[in-house]
Amino acid sequence: MENTIVQYGLCIAILVALAVPLGGYIGKVMNGEKVFLTRLLSPVERLIYRTLKINKEEQMGWKKYAVSIGAFSLFSFVFLFLILLLQGVLPLNPQGVKGMSPDLAFNTAVSYVTNTNWQAYKGEVSMSYFSQMAGLTVQNFVSAAVGISVLFALIRGFVKVKSEGLGNFWADLTRILLYILIPLSILVSVLLVSQGVVQNLNRNETVELIEPVVTEDGDEITEATVPMGPAASQIAIKQLGTNGGGVFGTNSAFPLENPTALSNLIELISILLIPVSLCFTFGRNIRDKRQGVALFSAMLILLLLALSATFAAEQSGTPQLKAQESVNIEQTDGQAGGNMEGKEARFGIADSAMWATFTTAAANGSVNSMHDSYTPLGGAVPLLLMQIGEVVFGGAGSGLYGMIGFAIMTVFIAGLMVGRTPEYLGKKIEAHEMKMACIICLMTSVAILAGSGIAALVPAVEKSVNNTGAHALTEILYAFSSAGGNNGSSFAGLAANTVFLNLSLGIVMALVRFIPMMAILSVAGNMAKKKKTAVTTGTLSTCGPLFVGLLIFVILLIGALSFLPALSLGPIAEYFQMIG
Amino acid sequence: MKLWKSALPKAFVAVLIFTLLCGVMYPLLITGISQLFFKEKADGSIIEIEGVKYGSELLGQQFSGEEYLWGRIMNVNTEMLKNEDGDPTAYGVPSNLSPAGETYAKLVKERVRKIKEANPQMEEEKIPVDLVTVSGSGQDPHISVEAAYYQIPRLAEKRNRTEEEIQGVIDKYTTGRFLGIFGEKTVNVLEVNLALDGILK
């Protein structure tokens, strides 16, 4: 127990210690200020601008910015879709995997373009190395970059006074990739390979089993497969870009994706590094650091609450695991104890619970343990974190702009209480902003509840669930929450590769990604036009503990109340069945 | 419409540029660095002794013989992956079962019975939980120290060696926590078994 607390404390301390300077660095890069990589990379940057025929100083209006994102995402989708369909005849395919079915290719392409990385396939069975590299790895990078660029468009909207422009999308995209995501990924992937993550282009390795496996038909299997591929390069960006799609089926639980306690620590920190840094960048670039710290504090408090709840539920295990006191589930120096179903021995309960919390708080979605095998309440926490809209640090860029949506909602509610026109960061919040904030805050809930409601009524979906009763409903709810939060983690027992689920989840992912994104850009465009209002004694401070408390309250109010009925039928019902 | 017309060509070229940069140059650079500096690790940490590949030190194998150290419970799939000749090979997968249901209670009971039967020396002791559960990857190469120690009396008897000798082998293939803090203490099951067979020295 003490060790767990020390582990959690240290991990968060390292995270913040890295995020503060990185936040400053990102802020400089996005303002076009000089950084230590400028000398090395500016020729490449200029070459890209010349090829794209853009003027980096151009200030796009919000519509142009939005259309640029739309066009870029459209081509990204088409490229990836075609690669997945045609991978059977494309190069770098030593295992000879076939092209994907159109519905699975659609689902996978939408999933990666929207930074969700939901996976209805198993990487080692249905992906060629070409698809992994030129298809998926690319979208891991650019979908994260798109999310971050929107955040900066919004920041510029707050900073600018009576103007139109939000910056140049193409320049933002290029800078984020060249100066932030690629250098960090090179660093992380080399560290991961040093721990044993595979990185090659060889065919899968076959090894001799010491003890042959006898199948149900009586056949003797004497060999096992060790899968290969360009894994580390994709895993680094899958964590840093809050993507989360595993190169292999069991994601970061798989030892060749995450072999040691150190690789686990590196990946855990990578999951939250950019979302946390962006809080500090936000404060820096709007020239009021306290605003960034306030949003960071609200997120950290929610994260710690969720972390303690998950850990406590998983460490206590279930009565079924104890099997009338014949199994030892105590946490000691020699064993992790607790609910070890679906968890790896090297991570135990502490590191698995921390990962489950981080990955669903950030819209990452990679897993190092199987969430389907969590205890009812332990599995409900990740579920709720996705349902409140991925705003507890959330996706790269998208988490923070979602949180700002909630902040706008909070100042509005607070403004109503005292009867003043609400303001945020010196800009008046009026009808248009409120409409958009409502879309941002409610889109996720609507998509999740309508989606899982419909799915639960479709007879074919019944065949996809792996468990029965309340837990089966939770599997469906989890799938739609994951798609609806652009998270991508799964209760992996659900056999999700069916035409209905591929299409419906694909549509949900696209809606919850692009509608709030367009809404936030229109807020940004509107904000840029407004004048700054002076701070008076009547202005609600948005950086004190009062505001942080209110913000947490509003998030829980919207998130928790929308989902209480669904959660009662799923995990809560299962909990009461469990204790008998 | 005018906005789209000017954005589409840029978007097309941008996707090409970043595919080249992030999808070709970057992964090849990392492959090059990895093969140069960490070849054995980048190629899957294969244990190869006198030309025989016994497995990856990072992937678990199923052991059910009483003379071997047992690992996590494995669901072995033989249909997912094939070798170069198209013959089926073994590959572990997770259970994805809820640990709270009736079905699960029955499963654990059956696993407990099997383990108790194989370890009569430990009749009075509770079984460490990792021995009755399937791992997250389905191919966990490790078990906890308690789970390994639980099996020492049986291994000593079946192998005609002292308990101290068996413990010595287990301790040799035990990894501590990173910096004494992060992760859990683990025993590598495949390595212990290769050592017990005298293959790994």
From TrEMBL, chain A:
Membrane topology type: Multi-pass membrane protein
Keywords: Cell membrane, Ion transport, Membrane, Potassium, Potassium transport, Transmembrane, Transmembrane helix, Transport
Cellular component terms per the entry's GO annotation: plasma membrane
Membrane-spanning parts: 6-26, 65-90, 136-155, 176-198, 261-281, 293-313, 391-416, 437-458, 499-525, 546-567
Keyword Kinase: no
Pfam families per UniProt: KdpA
Annotated localization: Cell membrane
Keyword Repeat set for record: no
Protein family: Belongs to the KdpA family.
HAMAP family in alphabetical order: KdpA
Physiological role: Part of the high-affinity ATP-driven potassium transport (or Kdp) system, which catalyzes the hydrolysis of ATP coupled with the electrogenic transport of potassium into the cytoplasm. This subunit binds the extracellular potassium ions and delivers the ions to the membrane domain of KdpB through an intramembrane tunnel.
Subunit details: The system is composed of three essential subunits: KdpA, KdpB and KdpC.
NCBIfam families in alphabetical order: kdpA
Name of the featured protein: Potassium-transporting ATPase potassium-binding subunit
Originating organism: Mediterraneibacter hominis
Record gene name: kdpA
TrEMBL record, chain B:
Bilayer disposition of the protein: Single-pass membrane protein
Classification via Pfam families: KdpC
The protein's assembly and partners: The system is composed of three essential subunits: KdpA, KdpB and KdpC.
Protein's UniProt name: Potassium-transporting ATPase KdpC subunit
Gene Ontology, cellular component aspect: plasma membrane
NCBIfam families membership: kdpC, PRK00315.1
Record gene name: kdpC
Swiss-Prot/TrEMBL keywords: ATP-binding, Cell membrane, Ion transport, Membrane, Nucleotide-binding, Potassium, Potassium transport, Transmembrane, Transmembrane helix, Transport
Key word Zinc present: no
Species of provenance: Mediterraneibacter hominis
Family, similarity comment: Belongs to the KdpC family.
Compartment(s) of residence: Cell membrane
Record field: transmembrane: 12-38
